[in-house]
Design a protein that fits this description.
By secondary structure, the protein is an alpha+beta fold. The protein contains 2 helices and 9 strands. It is globular.
Length: 127
Amino acid sequence: MRIEHIALYVNNLEKARDFFVKYFTAVSNEGYYNPRTDFRSYFLTFGDGSRLELMTKPDLTDSGDFLNRFGYAHIAFSVGSKEAVDSLTETLKADGYPTISGPRTTGDGYYESCILGFEGNLIEITV
């Protein structure tokens, strides 16, 4: 068994897609649009075959505090090495994405950093 994909509602669909394409080398499909419901989505595929569906529709509401809410906490990306974690973290920081923690080795042995990506979504970058 494997997870086929994870889905995430976003306000700015194009900006979210561009974020994952630019920083995590995702490949996007052409997108989907349902004119009846005004629902739009993109499927993004990553190098290992994992997929993320980005979705938007009218009248989405914001639940408030991004760091302290129920539900999914973050998306973690393995970039292969400590040097790659450091490099991508610095690139994201230079581009204005706040670093929440790290890069560091956590108590359970992960080398990681956490950044706030587009629309305040927590992104973990790990070896």
